[in-house]
Design a protein that fits this description.
Oligomer: single chain
Largest sheet: 5 strands, mixed
Radius of gyration: 41 Å
Distance between the termini: 73 Å
Helix content: 25-40%
Structural class: alpha+beta
Strand content: 25-35%
């Protein structure tokens, strides 16, 4: 534009340009773009759970559907009529839909989400709509339509999906300033939850991932922002040198998982020999370990340092009324279920209208033919006369609903007036059809329509009942093979410092005061990891804790150097020092807790000239007896005597200690190492995470000294002795019994011999001493099965038996300790009887005596869950009864309790 000269702002003839401010661009362009990305690309609609590209793919496939497979390239081309983007984005979206194995039936190489392999080119793979999609997703009569982007075609605004599809498939999308991440859920559980909504019952939904694995959903928070899911691979311990990964966490691939394992190995965080990928129909990654490496610690290290454990943060954002909303998965299911009910109601109403029209047409046709009304139109000359003649002929035989009924009036009652279209339709009936008309079949047809109309009316009157039946039918037709793949667990926290492999060696230069893994010419102390802290105690009675490094100066004249664990409450230091000011020698026992890294602490009175005479570190609080020899110049007559550290109480690092002698000491020599003065450690078993602990979480097993072991009995009829190591991974799904092994422990068992199908009872002591090796105590013939096992002192079983084919079933209780004497663990046992046994259940009234006594000694009237809970893992399902869905739900309910209730803090 040319500036106006009279304004005086610009020179005459000066040309200026319009300037678009950033504020205007933001208001006019950026917000439009952001809204478009959110509504039309990234975030799904709550009505059908689909993004626009997915909706258009399904609509295009429905238009092409003829029951046969179509090339994906053809489907992409058909979809491009509706989707204003490139073929690559459509192809990727279609592959994603096909891999979820719900709406699209695939043929060819569609890739593998487990291995990360991509699908073949669209021209090589084929697809068609699944039967589930055809039944649940489409109905043109109740679909809302809109014009496509170029105005040539019409496309659905949303599809009438009668199922919580969004929760079944899951979705992930990133928009402008907004994202959504909805986890996939189990098909069967969604159907059951929808039924629970319709019945006004409580329900809970948790993710189920197609890759299986383990999931900790304790912080799921209904899928809303701020929640977190921890996913773990399923790792099987085959033997001491081989681990096998069976399932991988959702969102990872076998290739990425193996790369993370190799990377952790190269960084010396774990020690492995080889990683082999044998994945085919099922995931199988073998992790081979070198000799001497603990498989249990390696499992923890895999979770700590590799992609065997990952975290996902859900974010349930959906489009509701053309706006993004954040709602929980349970509310989302309620919305979906309510929408399904409305769609079912609309379908019933349309069906009712169709049936009424069919009934109306069939009734008019019956009257028209049986009463030969068609003959009266032969003499009519005009179309209007024909219609009037037919209408007049019908009025003699029909009456409209609502018309007053006269006496002996047998006319058919029509449910709506006769229209001109009805009359026209009657004129179109062919002579051939009239000549072959069968009044009986016509009456049967009308009666069937009446029955179906009554059924539809009943469904409309009882819509909730009809919707429940609808979801139950979906579960029955399509639920087979869709059982839960992801196991719900509560994970323990794996601390990197605890599981870090000893990839470094600690050295010490005592005289110069250096510690570190780079002092390879100096004194070797122990193996350690590069995550450890190091404690160094000097002769002057001071100490420091510092992070391990290549070379660190901690002070000259080092007496003790080692790895420091701040949570170790069993490592006790025994010390004798002479005070520099008074010359008196003191002895003390202390723990090192509550320290600040790189700070110097004093274990003595801190006077000048103080010197440490004797110092030992005892991992299990062992006491000592030492021989103390006084100086030759000491005036005491007895110049040598023994001192027992067991007489001292264990105190903190700042305690002064007890006086040993006021005379100068020449030397101190250890005479003997005593027992642990802290006694055995209390051990608990946490059944939720399947680990032992000393923190009081879970079921109390007892007090364990060095020689005590844990007895584990498995469902396959074997037992194993293991040390009470908190790092031990227990095969929880296959365990039948876990308890402390006592000298008087007797295992009572009932099993079926595989070849003869005879039931046997046996009782035996644990005679083996080999650790971490399973011993089979039932018959090893094929088909042998352990039915019950217990270590109760007075075990009892309830048997349901049948003495002969004609007799009724009886229930009998048997005391196992009265049935058979204690024999060797290899003994066959005694036959139960020769009758047919239908079921057997273990009856337990109280826990094992040793555990009960220990619980009483500790001041616990009843262990957690009551006395019966002391052997909570002892289960014995009947031999011919399957586990019910209700029992599964009860076991899953344990996982849904808050952590505080589970004893996890």
């Amino acid at each position: 534009m040319v500036a106006e000269e009279e304004e005086g702002k610009f020179a005459p003839g000066e040309v200026i340009h319009d300037i678009a401010t950033v504020r205007g661009m933001y208001q006019n362009w950026f917000l439009d773009y952001a809204s478009y990305v959110i509504l039309e690309r990234a975030v799904p609609a709550v009505e059908d759970g689909l993004k626009p590209v997915q909706r258009r793919i399904l609509h295009a496939m429905k238009e092409m559907d003829d029951g046969r497979f179509n090339k994906v390239a053809n489907v992409i081309g058909q979809t491009m009529q509706y989707h204003p983007h490139g073929d690559a984005s459509i192809g990727d979206a279609m592959v994603n839909l096909g891999q979820k194995d719900l709406l699209i039936e695939t043929q060819g190489n569609w890739g593998d989400v487990r291995t990360g392999d991509s699908a073949a080119a669209p021209r090589y793979i084929e697809a068609r709509l699944s039967k589930f999609a055809l039944e649940v997703v489409f109905n043109p009569d109740i679909t809302e339509w809109q014009m496509s982007y170029d105005g040539r075609k019409r496309e659905p605004t949303t599809l009438p999906v009668k199922f919580p599809l969004l929760l079944a498939q899951g979705v992930e999308g990133i928009a402008v300033g907004l994202s959504t991440k909805i986890m996939p859920h189990n098909f069967r559980e969604l159907c059951q939850a929808s039924v629970a909504v319709l019945r006004n019952r409580e329900f809970q939904l948790f993710p189920d991932f197609p890759t299986g694995g383990l999931a900790d959903i304790s912080n799921y928070q209904n899928g809303q922002r701020g929640g977190r899911i921890r996913l773990r691979a399923t790792i099987e311990k085959v033997d001491k040198t081989l681990l096998v990964i069976r399932d991988i966490p959702y969102g990872t691939t076998t290739t990425a998982l193996m790369e993370s394992i190799v990377k952790a190995s190269e960084a010396n965080k774990i020690k492995i020999k080889k990683v082999v990928d044998n994945t085919a129909a099922e995931v199988e990654i073998q992790v081979q370990l070198p000799p001497g490496i603990s498989p249990d610690l390696t499992i923890d290290a895999l979770y700590a340092f590799t992609d065997c454990e990952i975290s996902l943060s859900p974010n349930t954002c959906v489009i509701i009324d053309d706006k993004p909303r954040f709602v929980g998965v349970e509310e989302m299911l309620r919305l979906s279920t309510g929408k399904t009910v409305r769609l079912l109601e609309r379908e019933l109403e349309i069906r009712q209208q169709e049936l009424q029209e069919k009934w109306h047409s069939a009734s008019l046709e019956k009257i028209f033919i049986e009463n030969r009304i068609y003959r009266k139109i032969e003499e009519c000359e005009t179309w209007e006369q024909i219609l009037e003649t037919i209408d007049a002929g019908l009025k003699k035989f029909v009456r409209v609903e609502g018309e007053k009924l006269k006496a002996n009036d047998t006319r058919i009652v029509l449910r709506r007036p006769v229209s001109e279209d009805d009359l026209t339709r009657l004129t179109e009936i062919r002579i051939k059809r009239i000549s072959k008309y069968d009044g009986f079949k016509a009456e049967e047809y009308i009666q069937r329509l009446d029955a179906e109309l009554a059924e539809v009316a009943d469904h409309l009157a009882n819509l909730t009942r009809y919707a429940i039946a609808y979801f139950e039918n979906l579960l029955k037709k399509y639920g087979a093979g869709r059982e839960r793949k992801t196991q719900l667990r509560t994970f323990d926290v794996v601390t990197a410092q605890k599981v870090a492999v000893a990839n470094q060696k600690l050295y010490v230069n005592r005289q110069d005061g250096f510690v570190g893994y780079g002092l390879k010419k100096d004194e070797f102390v122990c193996d350690c990891s590069d995550l450890d802290d190091i404690i160094a105690i000097k002769r002057d009675g001071t100490f420091m804790v510092t992070k391990i490094a290549e070379k660190t100066f901690v002070g000259k004249d080092i007496l003790h150097a080692g790895v420091y664990n701040k949570n170790d409450d069993r490592l006790v230091y025994n010390m004798v020092y002479v005070d520099g000011a008074s010359g008196i020698s003191f002895a003390k026992r202390f723990l090192v807790t509550g320290i600040t890294r790189d700070k110097t602490y004093d274990l003595t009175k801190g006077t000048k000239g103080t010197k440490t005479l004797y110092l030992t570190a005892n991992p299990n609080s062992e006491s000592e007896i030492v021989a103390i020899q006084l100086s030759d110049k000491a005036p005491a007559r007895v110049k040598q005597f023994d001192f027992d550290f067991a007489e001292l109480a264990i105190k903190g690092k700042g305690s002064m200690g007890n006086i040993v002698t006021k005379q100068p000491i020449k030397k101190i020599i250890r005479k003997s190492l005593g027992d642990s003065t802290l006694g055995g450690r209390e051990v608990f078993f946490e059944p939720v995470v399947g680990r032992l602990n000393h923190n009081g979480h879970g079921r109390y097993l007892g007090t364990f000294d060095t020689e005590h072991l844990v007895l584990v009995v498995y469902k396959d009829g074997s037992y194993e002795l293991v040390a009470p190591d908190p790092a031990k991974h227990f095969d929880l799904p296959n365990m039948l019994l876990l308890r402390k092994l006592e000298p008087d422990t007797v295992v009572s068992a009932v099993y079926v011999e595989g070849e003869t199908k005879v039931h046997y009872i046996k009782r035996f002591h644990i005679e083996t001493t080999t650790l971490d090796k399973r011993f089979t105590f039932i018959s090893e013939s094929k088909g042998s099965k352990l039915l019950a096992a217990t270590a109760f002192a007075e075990p009892e079983v309830e048997v349901k038996l049948q003495r002969d084919k004609k007799a009724e079933k009886e229930t009998e209780k048997i005391r196992l300790d009265q049935f058979i004497e204690v024999k060797g663990w290899k003994a066959m046992g005694n036959k139960l009887n020769y009758f047919k046994i239908h079921s057997l259940a273990l009856l337990t009234d109280e826990g094992p005596e040793p555990q009960r006594r220990e619980a009483k000694k500790r001041g616990v009237a009843k262990p957690e869950g009551g006395e019966a809970a002391t052997e909570a893992l002892e289960v014995s399902p009947p031999s011919d009864v399957e586990v019910t869905d209700e029992e599964v739900a009860q076991s899953q309910a344990l996982l849904r309790r808050p952590k505080a209730q589970l004893g996890l803090f």
